[in-house]
Specification:
Keywords: Signal. Helices cover about 35% and strands about 5% of the residues. It is mostly helical and about 120 residues long. The longest helix is centred in the first third of the chain and has 14 residues. A two-stranded parallel sheet has the order 1-2.
Length: about 120
């Protein structure tokens, strides 16, 4: 069941991206494994690049760097927490990006710990 304000939250996030006048500059320096190509979208964009786009909507610029074997992608800091980072869609894209690089990912509760508001969480 969707939260009561799900539609408006989604609309607000999409409108932010569509109506933004600043250029969107994203990059994803990744090395994904071919066995995970099924996660690519219809434009052949893997989850790492789509995650960069999703997070870049709010700030205009975002990068998802290659994950080394000893690191994990972490959630936003208190200062960086916003609607583009504090949502289950971005979290799932980052988790998929980690998996595509044969890495591990943190739990949703760890990802969202610095978020004062959570967007688009479906139970």
């Amino acid at each position: 069941m969707f939260p009561p304000n799900f539609g408006w939250s989604l609309l607000a996030i999409l409108a932010t991206g569509l109506l933004s006048k600043r250029p969107l500059l994203v990059s994803a320096q990744w090395s994904t494994l071919s066995q995970y190509n099924w996660m690519d979208n219809s434009k052949a964009q893997n989850p790492c690049l789509v995650a960069a786009y999703a997070q870049g909507v709010c700030d205009g610029i975002f990068s998802v760097d290659t994950l080394s074997s000893t690191y994990l992608y972490v959630g936003p800091s208190v200062e960086a927490a916003n609607s583009c980072k504090c949502n289950s869609i971005t979290y799932n894209l980052i988790a998929a990006c980690s998996i595509c690089q044969n890495g591990s990912y943190i739990s949703w509760s760890s990802w969202s710990t610095n978020c004062s508001t959570i967007y688009l969480v479906c139970d």
